[in-house]
């Protein structure tokens, strides 16, 4: 039996170092200084921006929308937009994009006349 400390991968225990990232590399929400709520303020700003992107619904009767409700409204709005895109693509496929283009205000059949 050996009295030396056990080694890890051939490196003696005494010379092994901890390899930790410096604090600046960690993506952790640190406690705010002087009582300011920096992280929660940033999240609040992003939630407010998200709320401004979706159309207004009067389901809340003027009350503040909860975060989970905001995410549900956002998901519903995304589905609505995807449905609109699908319908518009089907309309383009049905009517065809056509090789001739129409000018604004003129029907396509009158464009070639004269």
| CA-based gyration radius | 31 Å
Main beta sheet: strand number and arrangement? 2 strands, antiparallel
What share of residues are in beta strands? under 5%
Encode the helix/strand succession as letters.
EEHHH
Gross morphology = elongated
Give start-end ranges of low-pLDDT stretches: none
What level of helicity do the residues show?
40-55%
Spatial ordering of strands, largest sheet: 1-2
Region (Disordered): 1-40
GO cellular component, one term: nucleus
Main location: nucleus
Keywords: Nucleus, Transcription, Transcription regulation
List the topology elements:
Elements: E1 7-8, E2 11-12, H1 38-53, H2 67-95, H3 108-111
Structural write-up:
The protein is mostly helical and 114 residues long. Helix content is 43%, strand content 4%. The protein is built from 3 helices and 2 strands, in the order ββααα. It has helices at 38-53, 67-95, 108-111; strands at residues 7-8, 11-12. Strand 1 (7-8) and strand 2 form a beta hairpin. The mean pLDDT is 73.
Keywords summarizing the entry:
bHLH_AtIBH1-like; 43% helix; transcription cis-regulatory region binding; IBH1-like; single chain; nucleus; 114 residues; mainly alpha
Task: Give a short summary of the structure.
This protein is mostly helical and 114 residues long. The chain has helices spanning 38-53, 67-95, 108-111; strands spanning 7-8, 11-12. It is built from three helices and two strands; from the N terminus they run ββααα.
């Amino acid at each position: 039996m050996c009295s030396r400390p056990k080694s890890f991968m051939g490196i003696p225990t005494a010379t092994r170092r901890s390899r930790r990232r410096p604090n600046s590399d960690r993506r952790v929400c640190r406690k705010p200084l002087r009582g300011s709520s920096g992280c929660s303020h940033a999240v609040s700003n992003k939630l407010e921006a998200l709320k401004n992107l979706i159309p207004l619904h009067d389901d809340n009767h003027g009350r503040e929308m909860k975060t989970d409700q905001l995410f549900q409204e956002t998901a519903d709005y995304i589905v609505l937009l995807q449905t609109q895109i699908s319908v518009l693509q089907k309309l383009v496929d049905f009517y065809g994009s056509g090789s001739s283009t129409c000018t604004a205000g003129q029907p396509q059949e009158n464009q070639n006349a004269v």
